[in-house]
Amino acid sequence: MPIVGWRNAYTGRTCDVDDYAAMAKVMPAFMLKALVDAEREDVRHSGTLLSVTNGLGCAREVVITRFMPCKPDPQKLWRQQGGTYLHEKAAALAAYDMGWVTEHNGGAEECVVVGELLGRVVSGKRDAFKRDFSKLRDYKFSFSGGDKFVDATRVAEPHHAAQLNALRLLTERAVERECFRGDGGMEAWVVGGTWQPTYAPLMSEAQVAETEVGSTKVGASGWKYGVLLEQHAKAYERIERGDKAEDVAKALPLVGLTMWRSRKGECSCTAHCPVKRECDALAGGM
Question: 265 - beta bridge partners?
C-alpha cells in the first residue's frame, strides 16, 4: 500500500504519514512506522499475482490499497497487520514440533506455493505444514473473540475450510501427490483469548468455488469464493492493461456491505475497511 498519510477516526481529519503528533492519541509512532514498513516490505501486498486469500474479500479494497495513494485508518489496518505479526509468533511455536515447515525454521520459500486454481495462476502461503504432507495448519487470529464460539464439533468455518482446501489443491499440484487428506489433516486454529483447533473437511475444487464467504447470523452474504477470486483476477488484468486504478476500483462491487457483520451489526465496509474514506470518495460500486 502506498501509505501517504493517516486518517484519525476520532477527529475525522487526515494528516501526513510522519505527523505523529496528530496521531498521538490514536496510535504511538513506533506502531505507525511498523505499519508503513510492513506494507512496503511485504511483496504479497503488491503486484497483480492472485493469492488464495483474494477469494475471501473485497477486490475494490485491494485495488485501492495496492495501487492508489492512501491515508488509511491505522487502527483498522493494525487489525489486519496485527494478525501477520502474530502469525510469526505462532509459526515460531510450530517450529518446535518435529517435522513442521514454517517461515521461521528456514522454510520461508517452501511455505509459498504457486499453481493453477479455478483456471487462474494463484499463490498461497502455508503457515505451517508437515514435511511428509500429512498436516496443514493455518492460524486465524480473531480480534473479536471468535475463539469463544468454536463448538464441540471442531468443524472449521466454511471460509476457513475453503482456504485450507485451496492450499491443499495447490500443494498437490506442485508435488504431484495427495496431501493433507488424512483425518484432521487440515487445521484452522482460531486464536483469540485462547487457541482453539478446528478441522476442515475435504473439499473438491468446485466446492471451494461455491463456498459462501462472509455469511453471518444476520444473513447470507451472497458472495462465493470463486466469484470473489475472479473479481480480483479481472481487476488485475485491467491494471496490467494500463487502466487507471480509480476507474478499476469504481467498477467493482461493494461486497463488504453484506459481509462479516460486527456484533453491533455493522457491515465489513464500516467495521473493518481501513480505506473506507477513499472508497466512499470514488462512489460507483453496486
Answer: none
Instruction: Name the residue with cell 503486484.
Output: 47
Q: What global pTM score does this model have?
A: 0.85
CB 154 within 8 A of CB 124: no
Please name the residue that has the C-alpha cell 464441540: 152
Cα(169)–Cα(52) distance, integer angstroms: 11
pLDDT tens digits in sequence order for the chain, 286 residues long:
578 889 898 888 989 999 999 999 989 998 888 888 776 665 555 678 899 999 999 999 889 988 888 888 888 777 666 566 566 666 666 666 678 888 777 677 889 999 999 999 999 999 899 999 999 999 887 756 677 778 888 999 999 999 999 999 999 999 999 999 999 999 998 887 788 899 999 999 999 999 999 876 656 788 999 999 999 999 999 999 999 999 999 999 998 888 877 667 677 787 778 888 888 888 765 5
Contacts by 274-277 with C-beta closer than 8 Å and gap 24+? 274/65, 274/70, 274/72, 274/73, 274/74, 274/76, 274/77, 274/80, 275/61, 275/64, 275/65, 275/70, 275/72, 275/73, 276/73, 277/7, 277/14, 277/71, 277/73
Report residue 206 as a C-alpha cell: 468446485
How far is residue 79's CA from residue 262's CA, in Å, rounded to a whole number? 14
